């Protein structure tokens, strides 16, 4: 990699600043740190590093082009934005800084000045108070990339498992009515294309979860498997996509089952997120597929309650940085 990654600050009152610092210090010590820069907050990050005793020199830079060389000295930080470090105390000023960092990082990725974007956690409530109208960063990024929300597919990825929730932030009671053959086929196509382009998997294997216990038990516990899920799998197979199922949810995540697929497509939020958080709690990465830019994020929130206490684990942020770099390499190789 020669084009650096952009890393957004997230809410400065959360654990974003300290996990960015901790992740960079860890990766640099292990000689695994890719070229990257943080979008804004050099003074804020310096204050955080000194207060928490994190050995991570801050190198203010004026443009992304300086990041690759500055990385040899410390953590490059674009000096165009600044704010206050006040851990555990979210504010509107902090939300504005988080939003500006996300916006500038997105612009850098879209313009090719950054090879990908790694986003630290934001507080949706604090952003809503300053006029933010998106459900989350994923929807914002889809809009910024001029893509419909449905094309921005969330995949949770770790060393031993990748999962995709086909429906996300909705009540469980609403899931059956939202499932359709078209929804499953559309999102499975995006997942398969993303695994090929960004992960270098030539023939991705997709396990499609059942909705009901025992995959409906022949219709005794629901008919969605026969009426919706199985026809979607057949349509995917007809296109040459290696999809199979419906696999009962209680059988999908055993070690033997996980060895048989590259990603599992789940019918609802918790069906996908419980196993990834149970198995990859410190290394889980949120990846957005279906966008023209690469985006990863640690699979955790702002954690205001522990911010500034020096106990936040930077493992997921380190994994998000490394995965974004690997995706950028895979994408470059695929387009060569």
- Mean pLDDT over all positions: 94
| Total beta strand runs | 12
Radius of gyration based on Cα positions: 20 Å
Top CATH class of the largest domain: Alpha Beta
Query: What name does the CATH topology of the largest domain carry?
Result: Isopropylmalate Dehydrogenase
What is the percentage of strand-forming residues? 15-25%
Oligomer: single chain
Q: What is the helix fraction of residues, given as a range?
A: 40-55%
- What string, H for helix and E for strand, traces the elements in order? EHEHEHEHEHHEEHHEHEHEHEEH
SS element count, helices: 12
Unreliable segments (pLDDT under 50, ≥5 consecutive)?
Answer: none
**CATH architecture descriptor of the largest domain:** 3-Layer(aba) Sandwich
Principal-axes geometry comes out as globular
Indicate the structural class.
alpha/beta
* Strand order across the largest sheet: 3-4-2-1-5-12-11-6-7-10-8-9
Q: In the residues, how many domains can be counted?
A: 2
What does this protein look like?
The protein has 336 residues and is α/β, with parallel strands linked by helices. It folds into 2 domains: 5-147 and 298-335, Isopropylmalate Dehydrogenase, CATH 3.40.718; 160-276, 3-Layer(aba) Sandwich (Isopropylmalate Dehydrogenase), CATH 3.40.718.10. Helix content is 40%, strand content 15%. It contains 12 helices and 12 strands. The protein has a 12-stranded mixed sheet with strand order 3-4-2-1-5-12-11-6-7-10-8-9, sandwiched between helices. Helix 1 packs across helix 12. The chain is globular and about 60 Å long. It starts with a strand and ends with a helix. The mean pLDDT is 94.
